[in-house]
Design goal:
Length: 366
């Protein structure tokens, strides 16, 4: 019997043919594919500029540089995210300040953000966790009031919408990832979008050693964060399928919600009003009212060949590295509680109706 994995990349003939074409073209870096991807991705997000980079972490780091975040500045983000969000702040020499989350969308709580603001706060990085866009309206109000920049971490949310605007539109800059498990992938890759020309040019230089248009003229410090033509070719093919992939994820999620409705102690995902959730993860909560512990439930699922995952088992502030920065248990009670409860089930586009029926049947038989 097959195993139902928690995630699965979908590579078609188009990706393979385009990679061959690039390999035969002799242009493997800084060529037409990068330009094409940037143009198409900017269009997709309805933004003016896009800059392709080598991964999502590089996109976040570059975004902070683009927003002029420097040593000594404070940047507020969520402890309930992949470590990359916080590491990007540290890479730019700034201070990570966490705020708590909302238990309905797992994203930054505006009230908690407001409490963490000091004279040194310069920016906020909200994360569109699991594929649902954060509470933009409330956080933007805070940003306006205190003159803060917003960098949207949309790594899990390509194609998600809020009030008919796509992910990537909810900040001064937004960062995406094309890592192997994301809704579209080129193996490793990332991209930034913005409407601000000056920010886009700062970012462009930063990913290319600080070089201006003239090669070997260094106007700023920078890194080599460029994407290759090979990766860009794959990402272009995947982008064509983003809507189709997301539709299948949403269909799968709706079927799971319908099938798993009403199980005591099992809380299903919430889609907030005005949001199009693209279900990078289908994340349920296993509460105290559930029959057994989350651990026992996971063992049962695995025994029945259903893959699952915990994103994330420990909120960032309770990891040794961040504890050393002065955080402790009790700082962010919602993030701490949810990390004990969350469990993600398979929702990816390659699941068949039979797979979904099987997942529902097995969980109900528990
Ligand atoms: C995947 C991810 C990243 C980092 O992307 P990489 O391409 O792996 O560097 C950052 N933030 C979030 C929320 C992610 O899910």
């Amino acid at each position: 019997m097959k195993i139902i994995f928690i995630s699965q990349p979908i590579i078609g003939r188009g990706e393979i043919e385009e990679v061959k074409r690039v390999l035969k073209s002799n242009i493997l870096a800084r060529g037409p594919k990068i330009k094409e991807l940037e143009k198409k991705f900017a269009n997709y997000c309805n933004r003016k500029y896009a800059i392709a980079v080598c991964n999502g972490t590089a996109a976040l780091h570059t975004g902070l540089y683009g927003l002029n975040i420097k040593q000594g500045d404070e940047v507020i983000t969520t402890p309930f995210t992949f470590v990359s969000t916080a590491n990007a702040i540290i890479m730019q020499g700034a201070k990570v300040v966490f705020a708590d989350i909302d238990n309905r969308d797992f994203n930054l709580s505006p009230q908690s953000v407001a409490r963490m603001i000091t004279k040194k706060t310069k920016a906020i990085i909200p994360v569109d966790l699991y594929g649902q866009i954060y509470n933009h309206k409330a956080i933007q109000e805070i940003a306006r009031k205190y003159n803060l920049k917003i960098l949207e971490d949309a790594c899990q949310a390509i194609g998600a919408e809020q009030n008919d605007k796509r992910a990537g539109s909810f900040g001064d800059v937004a960062a995406f990832s094309f890592y192997a498990t994301k809704n579209i992938t080129c193996g490793e890759g990332g991209i930034l979008v913005t409407d601000n020309y000056d920010i886009s040019e700062r970012c462009r230089r930063f990913i290319n050693h600080g070089q201006s248009l003239n090669n070997y003229e260094y106007s700023n410090f920078g890194y080599n964060y460029r994407m290759s033509e090979i990766h860009a070719a794959i990402a272009i093919e995947q982008l064509k399928k983003a809507q189709k992939f997301n539709k299948k994820r949403i269909d799968n999620a709706n079927k799971l919600i319908k099938g798993l409705w009403g199980i005591k102690g099992l809380i299903l995902p919430t889609v907030k009003y005005g949001n199009k959730h693209v279900f990078h993860q289908f994340t349920i909560r296993i509460t105290n009212e559930f029959k057994t512990s989350r651990d026992k439930f996971i063992k049962f699922l695995r025994k029945n060949r259903i893959g699952c995952g915990i994103y994330y088992p420990t909120p960032l502030h309770l990891n040794p590295y961040f504890i050393r920065l002065g955080y402790k248990e009790g700082n962010f009670p919602v993030a701490e509680k949810l990390s004990q409860q969350v469990l993600s089930l398979p929702v990816h586009p390659t699941l068949t109706n039979k797979d979904i029926g099987y997942i529902i049947k097995i969980i109900k038989s528990f």
